[in-house]
């Protein structure tokens, strides 16, 4: 079948909750993907940073096939031989004390919310059902009812109420606003170190250090959502490392499996996750042996193949190349590592038109918030790959 036939099938039988570019991909390798008509494209989205290790990474694939031949699922009613080693490797890599594995990023966020509320009641002494969690405007943490309850994006909330109470919204990047919002019932501050879905919004230098200090002074749990920014994307293993801090809870997902399988995790100190007792939280698939084997291989590839260092070096090179675009309607080029964005002014006619032209030129990326294009290729990208991309990006975005 041709692309247009696959598109017709999706439109007829699928829910219309996405607005994808009209490309039907059937195969991927490294930074490249091919559509059903045989056209080749460079992927500059990486499945929203889920394939940091490149499409169909052979080392992760081998680990997945080997584990799939042995054991795929036991549920957490029993133990398996992959879970303990994953816990140890994650804790040693990230300086964490405890790990709670889940499947999706949204599940990791929900897990953190439950854990810090229970910690607030049992440890901090907050009155029952009065716990407050502070979040930031323009956040994106997932799409469950509780998570969209504290979204400020009308598209995420319109028509989905009633919403879960217990959240307070402040401006991102404003440490003083955080301190002013804290009350005796505040149990946690949930924040992205860089707001990815909002358009790669980077907070002022020193913001995370101030946040860490404020949370310590007020006995508030700091939760960093590193589901998109973590695991090498910004040129560090975790984005928190750019300011030399450690969160109390860190949420990871996406690239934790290199795109092979849904895997996420809550990394925590002992005090917070220690409040959860048997039967109080879990998941049939969370921590299954196939997921754990894949995650162990994905982490190994990030470390041993130098992908974190590659993101730091080539991210800066890519950003400098993007800054050569000559278009007065570009407001800003920004980013950290290989998480980059080009933002257009409101009168530029929207960013999607450029994404469609880039697709026709053999490069796939996606607009966010109407006026922003995010560039986030797999971390296996080379300098030659970036030069190839810039040869297409610069003239198209200069129009």
Automatic annotation (TrEMBL):
This enzyme's EC code(s): 2.6.1.13
GO terms assigned for molecular function: transaminase activity
InterPro entries per UniProt: Aminotrans_3, Aminotrans_3_PPA_site, Class-III_PLP-dep_AT, Orn_aminotrans, Ornith_aminotrans_bact, PyrdxlP-dep_Trfase, PyrdxlP-dep_Trfase_major, PyrdxlP-dep_Trfase_small
Domain of life: Bacteria
Cross-referenced Gene3D superfamilies: Aspartate Aminotransferase, domain 1 (3.90.1150.10), Type I PLP-dependent aspartate aminotransferase-like (Major domain) (3.40.640.10)
N6-(pyridoxal phosphate)lysine PTM positions: 254
UniProt pathway: Amino-acid biosynthesis; L-proline biosynthesis; L-glutamate 5-semialdehyde from L-ornithine: step 1/1
Cofactor requirement: pyridoxal 5'-phosphate
Record's catalysed reaction(s): a 2-oxocarboxylate + L-ornithine = L-glutamate 5-semialdehyde + an L-alpha-amino acid
Compartmental location: Cytoplasm
Enzyme class: transferase
Chief subcellular location: cytoplasm
Keywords associated with the record: Amino-acid biosynthesis, Aminotransferase, Cytoplasm, Proline biosynthesis, Pyridoxal phosphate, Transferase
Function, in words: Catalyzes the interconversion of ornithine to glutamate semialdehyde.
Family: Belongs to the class-III pyridoxal-phosphate-dependent aminotransferase family. OAT subfamily.
The protein, known as: Ornithine aminotransferase
